[in-house]
């Protein structure tokens, strides 16, 4: 029998998109394998963006929560927070997902948004919030790039 040669998608690059009035937005085509692709969307706990991950990454997060070296009640609270705020979405024929209203409201997403690939997942920012974060992150990024030889 042959081995499965399917490689997980690596989400890289930055893409600007327009979100419509119903909160539908097209995922970059390079990040999609086909119609009806499923993702999990959750608001970041401290920053102004949504984290989007494929089911495999979402399941990996569940395993990480289960393996935390913390008391059971803390794991239960973390699970409640993480899974309670996460929503499953799938792409339509145009490669768009419908983002939850409450997530968009919480993170200020409307109109122009920015997709940023971060490896095994990606982020969706409002364009204004991303521009503001880019300015504040510039020095950190410069120092880290020097440290890793970029």
Topology:
Layout: E1 14-18, E2 24-26, E3 38-43, E4 49-53, H1 55-66, H2 72-85, E5 87-90, E6 96-98, H3 101-107, E7 112-117, E8 122-126, H4 127-148
Antiparallel strand pairs: 1-7, 2-6, 3-4, 3-5, 4-8, 7-8
**Number of discrete domains:** 1
* Count of DSSP H/I helices: 4
Strand line-up in the sheet with most strands = 1-7-8-4-3-5
Query: Which geometry do the CA atoms define?
Result: globular
Give the N-terminus to C-terminus distance in angstroms.
42 Å
What is the CATH superfamily?
Transcriptional regulator MraZ domain
Structure, described:
- With 150 residues, the protein is an alpha+beta fold.
- The protein has one domain (14-148): Chemotaxis protein chec, CATH 3.40.1550.
- It is 37% helix and 25% strand.
- The protein is built from 4 helices and 8 strands; from the N terminus they run E-E-E-E-H-H-E-E-H-E-E-H.
- The strands form 2 sheets. Strands 1-7-8-4-3-5 form a 6-stranded antiparallel sheet, with helices on both faces. Strands 2-6 form a two-stranded antiparallel ribbon.
- Strand 7 and strand 8 form a beta hairpin.
In short:
With 150 residues, this protein is α+β, with helices and mostly antiparallel strands. 37% of the residues lie in helices and 25% in strands.
Relevant terms:
six-stranded antiparallel β-sheet; 150 residues; Chemotaxis protein chec; 4 helices; alpha+beta
């Amino acid at each position: 029998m042959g081995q499965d040669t399917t490689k997980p998608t690596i989400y890289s690059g930055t893409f600007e998109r327009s979100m419509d009035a119903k909160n539908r937005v097209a995922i970059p085509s390079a990040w999609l394998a086909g119609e009806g692709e499923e993702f999990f969307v959750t608001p970041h706990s401290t920053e102004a963006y949504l984290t989007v991950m494929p089911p495999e990454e979402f399941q990996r997060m569940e395993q990480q929560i289960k393996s935390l070296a913390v008391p059971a009640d803390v794991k239960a609270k973390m699970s409640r927070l993480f899974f309670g705020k996460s929503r499953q979405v799938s792409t339509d024929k145009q490669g768009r997902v419908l983002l939850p209203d409450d997530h968009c409201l919480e993170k200020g997403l409307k109109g122009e948004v920015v997709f940023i690939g971060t490896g095994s997942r990606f982020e969706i920012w409002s364009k204004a919030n991303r521009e503001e974060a880019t300015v504040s992150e510039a020095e950190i990024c410069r120092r880290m790039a020097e440290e890793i030889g970029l």
